[in-house]
Amino acid sequence: MATKKKTYKSKGIDLMPYIKILGVLAFALLLYISYRIYASERTLIPISIFALIGGSFFQIKRITKDWGFIFFTAIISFIISFLAFLPGKHEHEYNFENHIEIWPFLFLIFFLFLTAIFIKEKVIPKLTEGITLIQSMSIIYWIIDFGVFETQNIFVIILLSIAVLFSLFSIFHAFTNFELTRTNRLTLSIWSTVVYVIFAIEHIFLVFENNQIENVNGITNGIYIALQYFLLGASGVYIVQSYLMLLGFLPGKGSFFNSLYYKELKELKSDHIKRYSTEQINIFHSFLCVFFVGSVFYANFIFKIVPKNIAIWMVFVCFPIILSFYEYVKNKKSSY
Hints:
By secondary structure, the chain is mainly alpha-helical. It contains 12 helices and no strands. Helix 8 runs antiparallel to helix 9 and helix 11 runs antiparallel to helix 12. The radius of gyration is 25 Å and the shape is globular.
């Protein structure tokens, strides 16, 4: 009678000891970072970064309604963010405190990018003719307030002409019932993304020009600056997603105008078309928008009440609320 040979299953590699070692090393590094922050003569991690991160967490919780997702993404981002402590390629003299200053910002960047990738469908906002109308009026105000119409630079003049043409195209759609074809929706979506990225870049620079919260006098000033950082953090995931939706039009290292590039381009164009609504805006709402937005921008241009970036972001937030309130009152009256 033949005897059966015993077969043994491979147990595989037990990763737990390595995870424990990494955990101990990370904890030890955290303790050392905490000590260096405490012992340093300068502020290495300002309060503003917590307002930024808080705004990001708030907005992503509002989008996903899932604290588990936020915790999981934050843990991954936290682990990857330790790359901040690696020496730079052209760093001749390693300065640990400089790397501590970079560390929380790198965490936030990874957190926003991972979120934008993991929940792409939820992050990409639905666009309408009304939104692109507000954006087009805002870019015209932005151009006028900058005084760039006075420039003699031919390159700037060409860029301005393109911006005005796209703005007029958007305004035309807001005041007519012209069909929103796939090509028109693609054009308006790309235009909206470009405008959003322009405003976002300017807003980022202006927010970071503020004094640090811990260095200002008075609680009111501190709250005002913290609010700006919080709002920037809240819009961070949309800024990243808009950046990705523009970056996708550029060929990558492994997809330089080859079949892979055109496949990815087709998917990106589909994303732009799908996110733009085919619903026609009420023309009366377009007139309301022009009156309200135009009045705000004109008053701010004449009297310089707030910086132009604050005026623009206030309009983005306030007009949809005002329009919703108007519709609510109108429907309530018609029900009597």
